[in-house]
Design a protein that fits this description.
mainly alpha, sodium:proton antiporter activity, Multisubunit Na+/H+ antiporter, MnhF subunit, ion transport, membrane
């Protein structure tokens, strides 16, 4: 029963990721695309965690951690780009 629930969750997360991929490509605005990409990252972390439980392995934990860090950095960079129009500020005084 537990394995069936995990397989259903894996299918639902995969389907949601496909829908989010469409939103990331066709999104009407840049913030919609950024939110879709961030949510895709979260869904990929969830998919990797479910696969780790289904396969009874710890091999995906490093990938989950790395993907979480990269997703966070990407979200911060995109948010800064939306706010200021640039990602890196090169201040001449500092």
């Amino acid at each position: 029963m537990f394995e069936m629930v995990l397989q259903l969750a894996l299918f639902l997360f995969s389907f949601a990721t496909l829908l989010l991929l469409y939103r990331a490509i066709k999104g009407p605005t840049v913030p919609d695309r950024i939110i879709a990409m961030d949510t895709i990252g979260i869904n990929l972390i969830s998919i990797m965690a479910i696969l780790s439980v289904l396969l009874r392995t710890h091999a995906f934990f490093e990938g989950i951690l790395l993907l979480g860090m990269l997703s966070f950095i990407g979200t911060v960079a995109f948010s800064k780009f939306i706010e200021r129009g640039i990602v890196f500020d090169y201040d001449e005084n500092g």
